[in-house]
Amino acid sequence: MDYTKAKYYTNRELSWLDFNDRVLEEARDKANPLLERVRFLGITQSNADEFFMVRVASLSKLAAVNYPKPDASGMTAEDQLLAVNAKAHDQVVKQYSTLNRMLLPALAAEDIHILTPNELTPQQTRFIEKYFNDEISPALTPMAVDSSRPFPFIGNNTLNIAMRLYKDGDKKDKRFATVQVPEIFPRTVRLPGADNDFIMLEDIIKTFIGNLFIGYQVKEAANYRVIRDMDLDVAEEDTSDLLKEVEQQLKKREHGGAVRMEVEAGISQSLQNRLATSIKIADYAVYEIGGPIDLTFLSKLTKQISGHDDESYPKFTAARTPGLQHDDDVFKTIRQHDVLVHHPFDDFAAVTELIRQAACDDGVLAIKMTLYRVSANSPIIKYLGNAAQNGKQVTVLVEVKARFDEENNVHWAQQLEKMGCHVIYGLIGLKTHCKLTLIVRREPDGIRRYMHMGTGNYNDVTAHFYTDLGLMTTNTDMGIDASNIFNMLSGYSEPPYFHQLHMSPDGIRNFITAKIDQEIANAKAGQPAWIEMKMNSLSDSAMIAKLYEASNAGVKIKLIVRGICCLNVGIPELSENIEVHSIVGRFLEHSRIYAFANAGDPQLYLSSADLMTRNLNRRVELLFPILKDNLREKVFDIFSTLWHDNVKTRVLTADRTYTRVDRRGLEPLDAQETFMAQATAKIKANATHAPQDSNAPHQFKPMLSPKNQPKSPIDRSLD
């Protein structure tokens, strides 16, 4: 049977837009607290901006050279570019319908207002005039465009005001000018006279913008914003200093070609045409916006609002992992038993504590670590520097090509070198995305290796709202494999095989393919055969074809895919045995789980890799087994809880749409709230001196009533 027909696949970019629609649904869901709904809407904007800066920008470049090869769904780059923009236009309409018809009225009902200039009281009008004259006006730079002054460069993601003007008394003397709205001021300005009255910064500027053009009349003023190609084009093979090349490309990136232009609804056709021609943007990429351009301001607005804490999620405190706290001997704990941590329900402090103690422990000889994304004030960076200054051999692979974190990572790479660490920047042509720490320690019985391997970044900030799994172990075979991995990354080494770990490129693809083939053989032999997988995205056509083959052979397949899913369900004789769920909630589902029936002896693996071509072919990724029975059962329980979620889950249907779970006759079960409740129970148990084993399997207990649960969930942008 041919599993590669185009009709069996959904286009990757259109599938991503479907994911952003699911995030948008959370903004429309009245079961969520109001301010969280507002934040969700802001997230859909930041998601879309990044999508256009990278994915649509890539399509634009391919279409510009008439790249002929279609994707797995049969669409050329030009086809995709047009289809993506058409769908994105519809999504923009839905975003602003959500804002104008749902959220703004709901905010007004709570006495929270975003006012227009003609709605202000005399006191508020005087306030904005003074604010403009005293604060804003000195920071504005009007840019006239005429025969001697060309159209200025409009920076990526900046808000601007375009104007048509004429000289006093001469309406035939037509002029054009543009002003950038300064980013140094709050986008929403609090007004006097009420606790939560606000006005948009651009509305203040437009009200008094004529003051900048003495002797001229402003005939029209309209807001606009340009999104540009922000993908980094680093020719690694042609540079001997990757750090300098990245720094140079960061400077060039700001001048990428325009891929989308948003203009204020009601803008005149002549002014829109002038902008489109000057910015060089196609008609299909011009978006008329029925409200404030760039909704990312909404997240900051929620922080400005006072007196409405009840309209946000209740504060959640993660459980601390026994044996991995500040006063514990973390090495003793890990030596006694493997430790599994489930963030953000288990505190990320367990990971940072491991690095902190390693930095000052007399027995530690070396620390080796991969860093893909870290926070702006990372404690891990500090501890690694301390370790180097304490005489440890510290080797850190910093991935300076991590998208949109390049500048942060370049800075930390330089700081680590100054502190005495050996810093490496990965392999030519590959991003290093694996999350791996190796600590080499001298002990009375010899050298022992301690490891942490995870599905998520070593980022203490995102660990509060990304769900990830991590393993701490002293397993000998894994330790040997980890040493070989770092030898590969830092030097010249090609080990013939790994004992327990599997690496991309190639290794993870080959391993998972072999595991699926084994499930196919088991199904045909009448043995137990099933596959359970959880990931962020599923887009690799070869892996999808292999899953289709397994389904056709009778293997039961459960997939939890948060974002992109190019696989289709319900195709007769092809994918009838495949179910796909997607969870969008308070936390960003980020962990990757790969489990197989193995003829009745289930095996389970965690990984940093999604089943995407980039992860399997073009990145250094890690897949590792969970060998201890109690920890494996714990992860299976986590998967089961997620699978039975019927509050935040959407189910992929045969018509390629996602629907909510039919809860008739079912008790509500929100998986993330279940995990939060379990964490809270651990905290209470520890407070009453009744310690529980945090690595015992979860007891699967559906929450009986949403009234007894913390209010649920908020998603973040894609990794």
TrEMBL record:
Post-translational modification: An intermediate of this reaction is the autophosphorylated ppk in which a phosphate is covalently linked to a histidine residue through a N-P bond.
Keyword Chloroplast among record annotations: no
Sequence ranges assigned to domain Polyphosphate kinase middle in this UniProt record: 124-301
GO molecular function: polyphosphate kinase activity
SUPFAM superfamilies: Phospholipase D/nuclease, PHP14-like, PPK N-terminal domain-like
InterPro entries tied to this protein: PP_kinase (IPR003414), PP_kinase_C_1 (IPR041108), PP_kinase_middle (IPR024953), PP_kinase_middle_dom_sf (IPR036830), PPK_C_dom2 (IPR025200), PPK_N_dom (IPR025198), PPK_N_dom_sf (IPR036832)
Domain Polyphosphate kinase C-terminal: 329-494, 501-672
Annotated positions binding ATP: N47, Y466, R562, H590
Region (Disordered): 684-719
Gene3D superfamilies the record matches: Endonuclease Chain A, Polyphosphate kinase middle domain, Polyphosphate kinase N-terminal domain
Catalytic activity: [phosphate](n) + ATP = [phosphate](n+1) + ADP
Domain Polyphosphate kinase N-terminal positions: 9-115
Signal peptide: none
Cofactors demanded by this protein: Mg(2+)
Amino acids binding Mg(2+): R373, R403
UniProt entry keywords in alphabetical sequence: ATP-binding, Kinase, Magnesium, Metal-binding, Nucleotide-binding, Phosphoprotein, Transferase
Function: Catalyzes the reversible transfer of the terminal phosphate of ATP to form a long-chain polyphosphate (polyP).
NCBIfam families named in the record: poly_P_kin, PRK05443.1-1, PRK05443.1-2, PRK05443.2-1, PRK05443.2-2
Record-linked PANTHER family: POLYPHOSPHATE KINASE
Similarity section: Belongs to the polyphosphate kinase 1 (PPK1) family.
Designated name of the protein: Polyphosphate kinase
Species, as recorded: Levilactobacillus lanxiensis
